[in-house]
Design goal:
The protein is elongated, with a radius of gyration of 27 Å. It has 3 domains: 176 residues, Enolase-like, domain 1, CATH 3.30.390; 50 residues, no CATH class; 61 residues, no CATH class. Helix 4 crosses helix 7 and helix 9 crosses helix 10. With 331 residues, it is of the alpha+beta class.
Length: 331
């Protein structure tokens, strides 16, 4: 591996220009063009066969509900696949493509620039590392990405030390005077605490900055490498119409279904993301571990009819989620 990412302007000789691209298409005889067209169509048909019969959904790819669509040669519409690393590896093996990698590592101050940034170039060679390069792909990753920049702090039990075990109680602590408000309890050791116990209330909770971003060095490198490899495989197989690679990199809840009226992807706003985060944290604090129970709370708070289809969090509006959050915070 090395740092080999400079973009160099190399003027192409006219002879080289004529050997590829639109010049090459024009130079082909009708028979040669017909053969190239046949091979291209057959290759795409076989890519569809590989996706349908070799790749395993959930392991090699995902099919998110919000994914775009493509139409095969028979006119059948399919949802685009979110290509995972195992699927990309299988496609590379099927196409006899061997990857090589170059990377660039950048280090920032952690305030205005990520602590670690990796940019990886993947080259796919025909047959072996000595073979000609068929396609290139780029991937990057950095410690400012949400899943690396933050972690979720959970309250620990002052009695047994169990992390994430503290829950708000529906009852006053055992042995407390009459009229004492509900406090806290530990789901592990069953200890209970008064509502204003500072050993609990002063603990941080929710999304906080990751205090050790440098521990993620290898993780960030591997993610950039994976993204570059998948990008190269997609390009080498002509699979962009069928395969995506970035949908799984979206923060949870950010990938939304297409709006029926506009056909445009609806991005989750930072305000909505904060609302959803607060809802999940409050649900966990109250011992709500099933999505169905959380959705029932949202419905009950907003008077939503049971018959309305609400099976995922994006089915609820910002105002409905806000009402549910406020109702829980008042308790």
């Amino acid at each position: 591996m090395g740092s080999d990412l400079e973009i160099v302007d190399r003027p192409l000789a006219l002879e080289v220009q004529k050997a590829a691209g639109i010049y090459a298409l024009g130079a082909q005889t009708d028979d040669e063009f017909g053969e190239s067209l046949t091979r291209l169509k057959r290759g795409l048909e076989r890519l569809d066969i590989i996706i349908a019969t070799v790749l395993v959904e959930g392991t090699d790819y995902d099919t998110p509900s919000y994914a775009g669509t493509y139409v095969d040669k028979d006119g059948t519409e399919h949802k685009k696949k979110n290509l995972r690393l195992p699927g990309a590896e299988k496609l590379a093996l099927m196409a006899r493509l061997v990857p090589s990698f170059d990377f660039q590592r950048l280090v920032g101050d952690g305030d205005t620039v990520p602590d670690i940034v990796y940019v990886v170039k993947c080259r796919l060679h025909m047959g072996s590392h000595d073979g000609p390069v068929v396609a290139e792909g780029l991937g990057s990753a950095n410690t400012f990405e949400t899943k690396y920049r933050y972690r979720y702090a959970e309250k620990s039990c002052p009695a047994c030390g169990a992390v994430g075990s503290i829950r708000k109680s529906q009852f006053p602590p055992r042995g407390a005077e009459k009229g004492t408000p509900p406090g806290w309890w530990c789901k592990e050791c069953k200890a209970d605490f008064v509502k204003d116990d500072e050993s609990i209330t002063l603990q941080g909770a929710g999304k906080v900055d990751n205090p050790d971003p440098l521990d993620l060095d290898n993780t960030v490198l591997k993610m950039a490498k994976t993204r570059g490899f998948r990008d190269a495989v997609k390009m080498a197989t002509g699979g962009s119409a069928r395969l995506e690679q970035d949908m799984e990199d979206l923060p949870a809840g950010n990938a939304q279904p297409k709006a029926a009226e506009s056909g445009q992807t609806v991005a989750q706003s930072p305000a909505r993301a904060e609302l959803v985060d607060r809802l999940f944290i409050l649900a966990k604090d109250r011992g709500v571990t099933k999505f169905g129970d959380m959705f029932d709370h949202i419905r009950a708070t907003n008077g939503i009819l049971a018959g309305r289809m609400t099976t995922v969090i994006r089915d609820f509006s910002d105002n409905e989620i806000r009402s549910a959050v406020e109702a829980w915070e008042k308790k």
